[in-house]
Amino acid sequence: MADAGLLPLPGASSRLDWSRLLEADQVSLCSMSEADQVQQALEFSKQLMVTESATLQAGEVSPALLTGKVSQLEQILMQLQFDLRKEQQDKVELQQQVQLLRRDNQRLHEESRTAANQLRRFTDWVLQSVDKRT
User: Fold this and answer.
1) 0.70 exceeded by the pTM?
2) CA nearest neighbour of 9 among 39, 42, 43, 33
3) What is the distance, to the nearest Å, from the Cα of residue 133 to the centroid of all Cα atoms in its chain?
4) Angle CA(70)–CA(74)–CA(18) in degrees, nearest 5?
């Protein structure tokens, strides 16, 4: 399923500055969630393979150029994998923090209940003491 936000790659006969295209793609990836990044990278790779296949059939691209493009895609993939690992580590850390905060919250609620009971008992004692003196 193609994302509605993705534009199709130009045909095999068009000339395109691939480094600028990849640069723009990397900038747009910085503002997306990890799942969206992976999905867009897969869609981009599929579109690139189709376009490159058509270009190769037309005989317009040299193998050296394709190797450079593959290297750029591999770099993007490595960056996405690194980002994914970082996001997963961050998620684990956040889950641990949430767990600690829940424990602290539970402890504080218990302390609050205990303090309220002590205050109630003290208030009752003070009122009883005042009643006995009068």
Assistant:
1) no
2) 43
3) 68
4) 50
